[in-house]
Amino acid sequence: MSSDKVRSTKLKFKGEKTKKKRKHEDGEEGPSRRRRREEDDEAPETWVLPESANDIRGPTFILHPSDPSPICITYDSTRGRIVLQSLDKDKTEESETPAVLERTPSDVSQVWVVTRVAGSPTINLRTGVGEGKFISCDKHGLVAADREARGPQEEWTPVVFPDGMVAFQNVYEKYLSVDEVAGGQLSLRGDSDEVGFGERFWVKIQSKYKKEAHAEEKKRKDGLVDVSAADEAGTNKLFQAWGAGKSVVSADDKKELKRAKKEGRLAEALLDRRAKLKSDRFC
């Protein structure tokens, strides 16, 4: 028998890189290694659950395990409002009911686009259809999607629990919740003080954005990313203003500004007085 190595019959293309096989130190494959391998094999558009708040980005599907049918947060572009839509509305008696975690969006109106400011734990939820409206919540807990600009009321802080479910906290430190109103209808509110069943949501993101978040986190831990250089939150605070370019400040801030201006004018007057006395002395 020839001692030459047997050539592989696998079809290769010119310029294709050869993947090296890595030997495992142990004979058995651990759960974490198996999970990473499964994630690497997933298609980029596969809908997956986030492991941390930083994973929540890009196209996002938000659903709630309501009874008797799970619901998802949907945007009705015709009426310009948020709708809680049953995921079983088109179900027939013959069709099988998938588990909640197996659900994926069936329409673009069910998908929200999550953006975040670098260096900030908060996110913005924008509609995936229409002109791009942001989900907001006012101090009374009223939730809407009718604003084209982002401000404090459009900021949400996602909280990921050990079981994988997510709660959304607004700028008033209240939580987004599914609330039953008159007539048995369900609506979104943003005035819950505690997290219960109504405040917990299942959130699904696309696999490629989760991988992107993990790659960024690894670079940050390895010191390859300068977080301070890309701190858009600090930049926005210094150079941007909410509301048609007008600065929105508190009453205390206004007093400080007036005091500073007054002290500045007094200092300028004192310097002018000293300069005049010095020039009179040498004349």
Automatic annotation (TrEMBL):
Alphabetical keyword list: Nucleus
Localisation per UniProt entry: Nucleus, Nucleolus
Pfam families in alphabetical order: FRG1
Region (Disordered): 1-62
Record field: compositional bias (Basic residues): 8-23
Family that this chain belongs to: Belongs to the FRG1 family.
Protein name as annotated: Actin-crosslinking protein
